[in-house]
Amino acid sequence: MAKTKLLLGYLIHNRIIDEATARHIDSILSQSEKSLGDVLVDENIFSLDDLMILLVEMYKGGTVNLEDINSEFSVGTDDFLKVFAKSLNYEYMDLDEIDIDYRMASRAPLAQLKKYRALPIKEDEINVYIALQDPIDINAHEGIQRIYNRKLIKIVIADPTQVEKYLNKLELGESIKGLIGDIRKELSSNVANNPQESSGILKLIEIILKTAILARASDIHIEPTENNCIVRSRIDGMLSETFIFDKDIYPPLASRMKLLSNMDIAEKRKPQDGRFSATILGKEYDFRISTLPIMFGESIVLRILDKSKVMIKLENLGMHPQNFEKFAKAMRVPYGIIFVTGPTGSGKTTTLYAALNAIKSVETKIITVEDPVEYQLNLTQQTQVNEKANLTFASALRSILRQDPDIIMIGEV
């Protein structure tokens, strides 16, 4: 609301509306859930086109940012940036929908690209296409022209968060190049023939884990192909490519992953499961790792488990009200079974923990069987699967039935 009042003050100060109109708008906003933009259009103070023109001017002057335009004016980022691009006679691009030429981009000095917050996208015989975080920064225009003094610069409008994301990816790729060189030197020496002694591989693993955690990924996929090793992360349910290495980096990487997880590094013919813990960015994470033999090696998948995550309340999961009511009623019935199903990263475990957290009490005996235990719940007896000790989901379930439980949660069926 404070931001809304500041924006109304701006409109009054610039004589776009008068004080009486501002009070009328403020009154409507206080009695409804409409945004300032909705009220300006609904009250015929602005047409949608005129509102967009106003927002462009306010954006250029720094009065509003993209978050304000989304929240206060109910205008989508893509819709606004297309109008903004048109006002400057520039092309708009959704960077998530195009192939960025990283080989071309890496030829420019990275320090200069970061200084001007500029991302090279592609080039042709005459032009270089550049996305700028601030496309009206004259210093950035001049600096980029000095870098590419033999070509014409074509400025492209893109979401600034996307520009930052892909600049970070470019920087990460450059740092990986140097690390890969160090690893190859180690591989050519007698010391690094043993993957336990390769410090470069450990640094590479740390970068892979750190990058995934910063991107809030739920899983990391390491997949060998005929010529490369591809690393992908699952973010918000979708896989996205993070790194591509040459194939010679894969064997020591896979061996070190297995060593960390107490797997048999010599066994490559059958699937294996393991886990390890690591401190990343000052926090302790658990990683559940699975290997699967495939045509060009072993596919390795790591599930990232953050035990410090705050438990999400059941009512905050985003269920449709009718579905929430049905689920809440079903989980309080004293008998029966509930199946929670869905693809990887869809929130199955989060839903189960939220449900158990909602119904746990001193009057109820709750026992879980999990692989692994992802969150610790008080008033709940949690069992960790241990196949080496023959404690499987099936054997644990047989024993649990003798423990007089009221509620049983089985992690996998």
What does this structure look like?
The protein is of the alpha/beta class and 413 residues long. Helix 8 runs antiparallel to helix 9 (138-147) and helix 11 crosses helix 12. The model has no long low-confidence stretch (mean pLDDT 86). The chain is 41% helix and 21% strand. It has 15 helices and 13 strands. It folds into 4 domains: 1-88, no CATH class; 91-164, 2-Layer Sandwich (GMP Synthetase, Chain A, domain 3); 200-307, Beta-Lactamase, CATH 3.30.450; 312-410, Rossmann fold (3-Layer(aba) Sandwich). It has helices at residues 2-13, 19-30, 36-42, 48-60, 66-71, 77-88, 102-105, 110-116, 138-147, 160-187, 199-214, 250-260, 321-330, 348-359, 393-400, and strands at residues 91-92, 118-123, 127-132, 152-157, 219-224, 228-235, 238-246, 272-280, 283-294, 297-305, 366-370, 381-384, 407-410. The strands form 3 sheets. A 6-stranded antiparallel sheet has the order 7-6-5-10-9-8. Strands 1-4-3-2 form a 4-stranded mixed sheet. It has a 3-stranded parallel sheet with strand order 12-11-13, covered by helices on one side.
Question: Layout of SSEs?
Answer:
Blueprint: H1 2-13, H2 19-30, H3 36-42, H4 48-60, H5 66-71, H6 77-88, E1 91-92, H7 102-105, H8 110-116, E2 118-123, E3 127-132, H9 138-147, E4 152-157, H10 160-187, H11 199-214, E5 219-224, E6 228-235, E7 238-246, H12 250-260, E8 272-280, E9 283-294, E10 297-305, H13 321-330, H14 348-359, E11 366-370, E12 381-384, H15 393-400, E13 407-410
Parallel strand pairs: 1-4, 3-4, 11-12, 11-13
Antiparallel strand pairs: 2-3, 5-6, 5-10, 6-7, 8-9, 9-10
Helix pairs in contact: 4-6, 8-9, 10-11, 11-12
